[in-house]
Please model this.
Amino acid sequence: MSTPETSRYVRLRVELVLEVTDSGELTDAALGRIAQDEAMPDTERAHADSAVREDSAEALAYLVDPFDLVSEVPGVDLAQASWSSEPVDYDPDAPDWNDDLDGDLDDDVDGDLDEDHDDDLDGEPVESRA
Model:
């Protein structure tokens, strides 16, 4: 399946809804991760600590790393990643809840989005890569 028309790059979209069952444990884990990050400047560390203490979604964002998800997958290198987290009102019984998730994924599976494969993961046109 490796033809000139086939891109070497694959966009993998994953959407998760997580229930925070212990916000204190989540916050402590995120603070521990921030404290262990030797490359993080002190000013950024102070901002991160504050954000994590105020918002479980921020704490989760510091703990989930896309590289960790694919680092053990043979034959691939992570070219680019972005992720975010936000609190949501979750009602699995709401008729439009599953439609939102399924609609986005169906568009990608059907090939309706990114047909020319020349967008990066943020939807911006890709400049020539060295």
Summary: The two ends are 24 Å apart (CA to CA). The CA atoms of residues 35 and 45 lie 8 Å apart. Residues 105-130 have pLDDT under 50 and may be disordered.
